[in-house]
Specification:
140 residues, mainly alpha, 2 strands, 39% helix, elongated
Amino acid sequence: MTDIVSRSLAKELGVTLKQPFVIENKAGAAGQGATEYVARKPADGYTLLVSATGHVIAPVMQKKANYDPVKDFEPISILAKAPNLLVVNPSVPVRTMPDFMGWTKAQPSVPFASAGTGGSTHLGGELGTVRSRRQAVCVG
C-alpha cells in the first residue's frame, strides 16, 4: 500500500512542483528498515518517509528500534486510510464477529495469516486469539 501511495504522490508532486520525485522502496520488516534509513538521513527536506502503522508499532515491539517515531520525524499528512479486514474460509461456520469469537473458543488453535510480523494485521490477529483465549498460529 505504501508503495502505491508513494508513487501516486510522487507523480502528482512532480507535476505540481515541476521537478522529479524518486521513489526508493525499501520493503520488509513492516517498514522498520525504511524508517531507520530515513531517520539517519540529514534533515534536508529532500527525503520523505511514507509509512504505515509499523512506523509507530516497531519501537514498542522490537527490543531496539534505531529511531524514535515522535522525536525523529515530523508528520506532514495522512495520505490514505486502509481498513483491516477479517475474512475466513467459507467453510468456517461463522458470518459475524461475535460468531467468530464464539467459534474460536471451541478450537484448539486458530491459524491466521497477516501482512507481516508487528503490523496492524498481525497484532489484530493476536488480539483476537488472546480475547478468545486460544493459541495463535501465524501463517503469514
